[in-house]
Amino acid sequence: MNPAGTALVVRPENIRPGHSTAYGRSVEYRLGKLARLGLIRGAWLDCGCAEGQYTLGLLRQGASEAIGTDINEDAVKNSRRLYAREPHLSFAVAAAEAMPFDEGCFDGILLNEVLEHVDDERRTLVEMHRLLRPGGHLVVYSPNRWFPFEGHGLTGPVRMPFPVPLVPWLPAALTGRWMQARNYWPGELQKLVAAAGFNIVHVAFAWPLFSQYRWLPDSLIRAYGKVLPFLERLPVVRRFGVSTLIVGEKF
User: Is residue 232 part of a domain?
Assistant: First the structure.
């Protein structure tokens, strides 16, 4: 379990577009972290927006305009249908590596559980840097290898379409060929974002809310929700969140 270990290389043919994480209280929980940092203002891009719940959330949390993009045409069509009456909200089909927008046209960009699925993560981050205005912020949520479950499941001779324990802690050379998405040690993700030209201004973690895989009784989930803010502040313990949150600033 070495945080400075070998980067996880997933077979390109295994990488699949991610599903939306907009279930339960996740939109409020994840965007709330950004709102408390005072980041949600001006024009925002939600890259990899799925069906647009986070895009709408950005608008309601303080953005003056929000644009969602996704490579899935059906998801974009559905987003346009769902939010046709929402002003200052729009959607487009686009790949993360080549976006149809002018340089420096956004104040903020959200990559929520997207970077691990793109064809080229480095090119994607460079493209996000191009799109931001100086002083703008890139927000990345991506799978944390300290979290002891692989949430995307595994492919291979025996497909496991459910969270698989301990896989993130195994050597990357052993697990990469079965993974359906990348995951990152926190330090590895910071270096990746910084290499695209960003100044890292905030690092934190998002914890699971157990609203998708409800294997705990409701009473324990409610109790867990009450102590979650405390757990997120505990040294060492806090780093075991399901996702790492990186905020980078374009300078």
Answer: yes
